[in-house]
């Protein structure tokens, strides 16, 4: 039996699974935390990867890394990192994004070019910010990579040329998923001069070998990894509640949404992965629990004790600003408080409902782009919450399936590693176990919750 490893280097932690390459059965797992913050020395990711994989990788035949998208890792001529990586959730580049959109002629010019309208998260916006605000450091820059590109290169012993894949490249803002090509003109527009970029590898290419001789697969972005791990069927839409909230589906065409709500990403198999991303997901639950003086289980208990609609209490959960809708400087706000409803249970319920309303808007934005939802697959750390599982079918107005608990990003990376090892045209067929939960939905109650949320959002933020 050959073993393969998948690595998920996401915002809050590094998770590793080692699987049977034929069945996908998970045999070993490891994890290690990442530091908090919106910029990180990539050395921390490497150190977490080393800790999480300690003793796990000795006998694996192939390995792959799926990483948080968009992060800007800039290296000098010797391959040394020039400054801490700016992460996808760092909003300092919001102004740079706006400037880039205006300079190219508006949102449609960008969706025509690369399927995306730059926001602060995108690498292209971060490069503009870097050139503008740190010109001396920027002068040392020789190449730019994404987090998974850099880790893949390190796994390779930094011996070969850096590589990336279609999925992660599609989140840079200077690579076109429709044309499968870089747009160096856009990189130069942002940064002022050329930079080396990683070669875009084919989906199941062997891009190198570890010093121990294991095949290294191209890797991908974390959301593309989850899509591969879940083995999506038509009509499936994933709602992932990690640090980010993401809503995405496998699709056969490139999506171009000039409203900017839907990112026209590529996937890790040669197809497409239209995706909506919010900045405020699972961490809203942790913050609400802390505010109420309880833990995550306590928050669940409180929220499940309140009625749908939280008796009129609404939380706009923009605790870290927001990406979709684009409100980088927004703060969260509580609405509808009265003497008779100002109870911890209602506030807990409003936190869960508010977080889910942002993702329900994501489902609508996907539908507007011709990507309808037949069922939602609920994954990520936040999907472990009993309250989220109970309330999601109502707010998302769709049947919700909670797949068996697993690290789907890491599993998808492992599946890609097995694919590269096998050298087949299609990825291996791995079957998931039975879902932990399947719930029907009650659209009429959820509609009222979403309406009140939208009313307060419009009144407070004008969008
Ligand atoms: N039972 C739970 N209820 C609510 N949130 C949870 C629960 N378990 C984990 N989380 C949250 O999930 C988040 C981590 O999810 P994960 O998908 O691993 O994130 P990321 O991939 O962005 O690092 C953390 O914010 C954590 O607090
Ligand atoms: O920016 C995006 C998607 O466009 C985020 O989804 C990042 O890829 C980070 O993912 P998590 O750490 O939340 O999984």
TrEMBL record:
Q: Which InterPro entries match?
A: ATPase_NBD (IPR043129), Carb_kinase_FGGY (IPR000577), Carb_kinase_FGGY_CS (IPR018483), FGGY_C (IPR018485), FGGY_Carb_Kinase (IPR050406), FGGY_N (IPR018484), Xylulokinase (IPR006000)
Answer whether the UniProt record assigns the keyword Amino-acid biosynthesis to this protein.
no
Q: Which residues does UniProt mark as catalytic? A: 222 (proton acceptor)
Residues involved in substrate binding: 69-70
Query: Where do the Carbohydrate kinase FGGY C-terminal domain residues begin and end?
Result: 238-421
Residue ranges occupied by any Carbohydrate kinase FGGY N-terminal domain in the UniProt entry = 4-211
Catalyzed reactions? D-xylulose + ATP = D-xylulose 5-phosphate + ADP + H(+)
List the GO molecular function terms. D-xylulokinase activity
Where are the residues marked Important for activity as a site?
Answer: 8
Any Pfam family the entry gives: FGGY_C
Q: What is its EC number?
A: 2.7.1.17
UniProt similarity note: Belongs to the FGGY kinase family.
- Matching PANTHER family, A to Z? SUGAR KINASE, XYLULOSE KINASE
Function of the protein? Catalyzes the phosphorylation of D-xylulose to D-xylulose 5-phosphate.
Q: What is this protein called?
A: Xylulose kinase
According to its UniProt entry, this protein's organism is Nocardiopsis terrae
């Amino acid at each position: 039996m050959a073993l393969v490893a998948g690595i998920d280097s996401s915002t809050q932690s590094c998770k590793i699974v080692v699987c049977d390459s034929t069945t996908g059965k998970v045999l070993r797992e490891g994890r290690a935390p990442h530091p908090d913050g919106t910029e990180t020395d990539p050395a921390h990711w490497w150190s977490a990867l080393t800790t999480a994989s300690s003793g796990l990788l000795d006998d694996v035949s192939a390995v792959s890394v799926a990483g948080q998208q968009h992060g800007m890792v800039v290296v000098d001529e010797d391959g040394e990192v020039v400054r801490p990586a700016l992460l996808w959730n760092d909003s300092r580049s919001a102004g740079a994004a706006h400037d880039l959109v205006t300079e190219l002629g508006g949102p449609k010019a960008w969706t025509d070019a690369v399927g995306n309208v730059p926001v602060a998260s995108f690498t292209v916006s971060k490069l503009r910010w870097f050139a503008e605000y740190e010109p001396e450091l920027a002068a040392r820059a020789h190449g730019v990579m994404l987090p998974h590109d850099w880790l893949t290169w390190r796994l390779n012993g930094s011996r070969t040329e850096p590589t990336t894949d279609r999925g992660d490249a599609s989140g840079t803002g200077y690579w076109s998923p429709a044309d499968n090509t870089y747009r160096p003109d856009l990189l130069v527009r942002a940064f002022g001069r050329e930079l080396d970029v990683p070669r875009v590898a084919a989906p199941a290419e062997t891009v190198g070998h570890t010093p121990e001789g294991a095949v290294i697969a191209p890797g991908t972005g974390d959301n593309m990894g989850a899509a591969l791990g879940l083995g999506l069927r038509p009509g499936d839409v994933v709602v992932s509640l990690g640090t980010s909230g993401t809503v995405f589906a496998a699709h056969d065409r490139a999506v171009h949404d000039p409203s900017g709500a839907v990112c026209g990403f590529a996937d890790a198999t040669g197809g497409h992965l239209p995706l909506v991303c919010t900045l405020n997901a699972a961490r809203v639950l942790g913050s609400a629990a802390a505010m109420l003086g309880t833990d995550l289980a306590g928050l669940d208990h409180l929220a499940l004790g309140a009625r749908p609609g939280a008796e009129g209490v609404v939380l706009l959960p923009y605790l870290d600003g927001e990406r979709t809708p684009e409100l980088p400087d927004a703060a969260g706000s509580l609405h509808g408080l009265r003497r008779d409803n100002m109870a911890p249970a209602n506030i807990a319920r409003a936190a869960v409902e508010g977080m889910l309303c942002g993702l329900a808007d994501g489902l609508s934005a996907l539908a507007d782009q011709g990507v309808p939802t037949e069922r939602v697959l609920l994954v990520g750390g936040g999907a472990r919450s009993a309250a989220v599982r109970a309330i999601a079918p109502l707010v998302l107005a769709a049947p919700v399936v909670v797949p068996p608990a697993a690290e789907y990003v890491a599993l998808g990376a492992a599946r890609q590693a097995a694919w590269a090892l096998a050298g087949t045209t299609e990825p291996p067929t791995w079957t998931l176990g039975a879902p932990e939960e399947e719930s029907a939905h009650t659209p009429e109650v959820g509609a009222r919750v979403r309406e009140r949320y939208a009313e307060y959002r419009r009144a407070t933020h004008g969008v």
